[in-house]
Amino acid sequence: MPTLQELNDFLRAEFPQSRCTLEELDDDGSVVVAHPVGEAELRPGGTVSGPVMMTLADVALYIAILAKIGIVPLAVTTNLSINFLRKPRADRRVVARCRLMKLGKSLAVGEVWIFSEGEEEPVAHATGTYAIPRDR
Amino acid sequence: MPTLQELNDFLRAEFPQSRCTLEELDDDGSVVVAHPVGEAELRPGGTVSGPVMMTLADVALYIAILAKIGIVPLAVTTNLSINFLRKPRADRRVVARCRLMKLGKSLAVGEVWIFSEGEEEPVAHATGTYAIPRDR
Amino acid sequence: MPTLQELNDFLRAEFPQSRCTLEELDDDGSVVVAHPVGEAELRPGGTVSGPVMMTLADVALYIAILAKIGIVPLAVTTNLSINFLRKPRADRRVVARCRLMKLGKSLAVGEVWIFSEGEEEPVAHATGTYAIPRDR
Amino acid sequence: MPTLQELNDFLRAEFPQSRCTLEELDDDGSVVVAHPVGEAELRPGGTVSGPVMMTLADVALYIAILAKIGIVPLAVTTNLSINFLRKPRADRRVVARCRLMKLGKSLAVGEVWIFSEGEEEPVAHATGTYAIPRDR
After folding, report:
1. Set of chain C residues whose Cβ sits within 8 Å of the Cβ of A133
2. Which residue numbers delimit the Thioesterase domain (chains A, B, C, D) (predicted)?
3. Taking CB atoms and an 8 Å cutoff, what residues of chain B touch C83?
């Protein structure tokens, strides 16, 4: 299975615009992905923009799947559902912890908790489904 | 109620990083928002990245609400659910048509259809809920 | 492809507890399914219970798929997302109109609008995904 | 705050058709709700019907909210999203564990894990939002 380094290399190649980085690859299969928060992620008033958190959720799910099945660039999101819970902090990275609930032959389903780094209460929660190509 | 020009001005002020533009403001309350597709929106293989479509869906919902209630910068997304249906074209803008299903006192719910410009089959479909501040 | 009568027969065999009936099978592939509303569907205060509308959405999606691919009892729901929009009437049936957004080889995605019969404003809106068995 | 007994009494009064029972009320605010599985819950082939699990998810969310805010019959579901993960067993009850992710002034958001009783792998996962009346 791929290492943290290999997954980060893949992330930079496959999502060249993404500023996400894989931070942890845990034994239980969960992954931790972070996104910086700066001018480009903030809206007036100091809110982290919703699309930044959706991007983070999508990338975290993708990485959690690749960590389990190996690097399969063709897996595609079929569904993502996100609940925004609290206002994230403007001065911290947003960090996502993702764990798969199911890894079937053709579908993987996972959940993602998003936090402002170092805080206890989640700022968002997402669930998503990826279709996995049959012939890999 | 705000004009197309006023909403576009607001969009640039409130989401300075966004490349979305409001294209149409229809009499039935639906809005059409577009996002360019270029290097920054593509992943290797020529796929428009999922987060671009999520951003477009989120902005389209927001604009559809503001078009009805006036410019209220504090409305916040509480939930967004998106289904990815088909691969978008790499050589066309993505265009979202959004219509509200409900506009209540405290919640607005809308649906968004996303197309590659000029194509008939949708590439994604989203539904979302925004919380509207009480004291506006 | 199956007729309305065949689909209703299947519905009674496959979902023996369901009180849903298929009412229309339209040329564009959309289907109309109805559920009676009586004592068993109401909560105190005269609200149609949420689960009745979720059942109706699920059955309508299933029937819309079967109407297109033939009667395949093994198709299973993988995801259902529903927004409740307005209070349904206590004295009318609830009626769902469902149309598929995508019918792929392994996944079908559809949307469902639910109304109190004869009313114009929808009471709920759902989207759902079904997995279709490969070897059928 | 209400006791387990009071919540079960309320459940029987408010959802007279429901066969759900509240089994646990934990110190961290999570609740455990069960639904029997028998002829009325099974589809041919021995699958627990999807609507049974949606009902269970909806009731578990409702009870988790009431356990925190007191018995407020007017709280209404605004959104429910469910992923079906595995086939439940035909010979066991289905059991839902629900925990709130957010309890705001006007919205509560929770997640629900559903299991066949005694099994380790979840059969479904749901998230839902309830609107809480302002003047309670």
Report:
1. none
2. 45-121
3. 101-102, 109, 127, 129
Helix (H, G, I), strand (E, B) or coil at C106: coil
Superfamily of domain B4-131: Hotdog Thioesterase (3.10.129.10)
Residue with tokens 């219509």: B99
Q: Does D81 contact chain B (CB < 8 Å)?
A: yes
Q: Do B45 and A78 touch (CB under 8 A)?
A: no
Distance CA A5, CA C8 (A): 55
* Residue D122 CB neighbours (<10 A): 19
Distance (Å) of CA A65 to CA A130, B65, D58: 8, 36, 29
Alpha carbons D69 and D2: distance in angstroms, whole number? 9
Rounded alpha-carbon distances, angstroms, from residue D62 to A111, B106, D8, D17: 22, 20, 12, 16
Lowest-pLDDT choice from B25-39, C34-48, C94-108: C34-48
Residues 6+ apart with CB under 8 A from A27: none
Chain D touched by B78 (CB under 8 Å): yes
Partner-chain contact B109 C83, CB within 8 Å: yes
> Would you kindly state where each structural domain of chain A is located, as residue ranges?
4-131
Torsion of CA A35, A41, A47, A52, to 10 degrees: -60
Chain C residue at shortest CA distance from B83:
C109
Average pLDDT, stretch C67-72?
A: 90
Strand ranges in chain C using DSSP code E only, listed in sequence order: 21-25, 31-35, 42-43, 47-48, 76-84, 94-103, 107-116, 124-131
Please state, as a whole number, how many other Cβ atoms lie within 10 Å of the Cβ of residue D4. 15
Q: Which residues in chain A have Cβ-Cβ distances shorter than 8 Å to D81?
A: 81, 127
Of D8, D5, D12, D14, which is closest to residue D72 (Cα–Cα)? D14
B101 and chain A in contact, CB less than 8 A: no
Local structure of A53: helix, strand or coil: helix
ipTM computed for the complex: 0.94
> ∠ CA(A109), CA(A114), CA(A120), 5° rounding?
130
Query: Does the beta carbon of A21 lie under 8 angstroms from any beta carbon of chain D?
Result: no
Interface test with A, best of D105, D127, D129, D130 (most A CBs within 10 A): D127
Quote the Cα angle for C88-C89-C92, to 5°: 115
pLDDT at D136: 56
Q: Which residues of A touch C78 (CB under 8 A)?
A: 107, 109, 129
Q: Is A78 on the interface with C (CB under 8 A)?
A: yes
pLDDT tens readout for residues D62-102: 999 999 999 977 778 999 999 999 999 999 999 999 999 99
pTM: 0.95
